[in-house]
Design a protein that fits this description.
mainly alpha; three-stranded parallel β-sheet; 8 helices
Length: 227
């Protein structure tokens, strides 16, 4: 008769003196911690019971956790005042080191331009120090300390709004000068009270009379050259 013995039949159980339970005697939790006590979740998992059997805890330590307050805001647009900032100590990291070295060696006095808007920043803050090297910084906004420190190294920061205003003013001046030149070319200079026939100068009173009449003269272009 053949009897096959399995592994469970071969391996005998360890004696009680060598088992783990004998070593854990005298320890209150018996290796299962103090909070759960080797049980499941008698009070519920997570925030369960916040409005029921855990209400006291939520009312005391988390007031206003449940419920709604105020009115609904339809089509809410967040981050409308999105404005990334960069500090002064990070300004020169926006350009290459070779740019700074070449600007320091340049004896013409032309300061390098750092455009923080092109790098994705809008406002320059005043944390840190700048090297003693003139630099022109272009940004949309500057803090007071940042502007003072940039001016302290020899140059100034240009706000994008100021830059746009300067360009608009220049364009307006060019348009005014162009219109003035076109207006002077069509004036009747024959009515100018010129004392001398070949004199390139005329009196203020005679010029006012020409402005009043505004007559055209085919010889005005040649006369404008003499004036």
């Amino acid at each position: 008769m053949l009897i096959l013995l399995t592994r469970a039949d071969v391996v005998a159980e360890a004696p009680a003196r060598l088992r783990k339970t004998r070593k854990l005697r005298g320890h209150v939790s018996h290796g299962h911690g103090r909070i759960g006590k080797h049980l499941k979740h008698p009070g519920g998992r997570g925030n369960a019971g916040g409005m029921h059997h855990h209400r006291i805890n939520f009312d005391k330590y988390h007031p206003g956790y449940f419920g709604k307050v105020g009115m609904r805001h339809y089509h809410l647009k967040r981050n409308q005042s999105f404005c990334l900032t960069v500090n002064l100590d990070k300004l020169w990291t926006l350009v290459s080191e070779q740019t700074r070295v070449n600007a320091a060696k340049n004896k013409t006095g032309v300061a390098p331009i750092i455009d923080v808007v092109r790098s994705g920043y809008y406002k320059v803050l005043g944390k840190g120090k700048l090297p003693k090297q003139p630099v022109i910084v272009k940004a949309k906004f500057f803090s007071r300390r940042a502007e003072e420190k940039i001016k302290g190294v020899g140059e100034r920061g240009i706000c994008q709004k100021q830059f746009i205003i300067i360009i608009i003013i220049i364009i307006i001046i060019i348009i005014i000068i162009k219109n003035a030149v076109e207006f002077l070319t069509v004036l009747d200079y024959s009515e100018l009270e010129i004392k001398t026939k070949n004199s390139p100068f005329f009196t203020i009173g005679s010029f006012r009379e020409v402005l009043k009449t505004g007559r055209t003269n085919p010889y005005a272009r040649n006369l404008r050259k003499t004036l």
